[in-house]
Amino acid sequence: MFELMRRNNNHSVNSYNPFREMEEFEKNFFSPFGSFFGTQDLAEFKTDVTDEGDHYLLEADLPGFDKRDIHMDLNGDMLTVSAERHSKVEDKDKKDKVVRIERSYGSYCRQFDMTGIDTDGIKAKYDNGVLTLTLPKKQEVLPQSKRLEIE
User: Fold this and answer.
1) Domain coordinates of the chain in residue numbers?
2) Which of 24, 79, 102, 142 lies 20 to 30 Å from 17, alpha-carbon distance?
3) Nearest CA to 36 among 120, 90, 102, 95?
4) Pick from 72, 82, 83: which is nearest to 119 by CA?
5) Percent helix, percent strand, percent coil in the chain, to nearest 5
6) Residue 83 per-residue DSSP state
């Protein structure tokens, strides 16, 4: 059995540390959250936003979530998308059986500015781990001209 390890490429070639691999092995072996503990990857999820002309399309990767665990709250011009994933080992009977946990559990949250968006027309769909939001642009209200009559 072998394990593929995610390498952190932030180390420059000039800063050679012969103990780095042993430190990474120890951290991955003894920490229940592996090398993912304490990183920003847990705090947010990845999104793509495209301009489709009359609307924006926001696609967010949220694999492994149930639809009921994803929440969207609009407060003024700020849309907050949050999701919470619970651990299967939160049950006390299963806790003693766990050897290693690498999948992340917890709360994830992102906020998006909705200035220029018709918030009444936002549509959301969740399919195959991808949350898709259709964000219609506000229509510009052009001033109307009219002729005034003299009394």
Assistant:
1) 43-136
2) 102
3) 102
4) 72
5) 20, 30, 50
6) E
CA angle (43 as vertex; 37, 65 as ends), nearest 5: 100
Assigned CATH for 43-136? 2.60.40.790
Look at the block and give the residue holding tokens 């001209």: 145
Look up the pTM and report it.
0.61
Q: Are strands 123-127 and 130-136 parallel, antiparallel or unpaired?
A: antiparallel
| Closest-CA residue to 85 (of 45, 53, 58, 57) | 45
Q: 65-112, pLDDT tens digit by residue?
A: 889 999 999 999 999 999 988 766 555 556 667 777 777 677 889 999
Query: What are the tens digits of pLDDT across the range 117-136?
Result: 999 999 999 999 999 999 99
Residue where the block lists tokens 């665990």: 69
Integer Cα distance of 8 and 125 in angstroms: 34
Distances (CA, A) of 84 to 32, 46, 48, 73, 77: 19, 15, 20, 14, 23
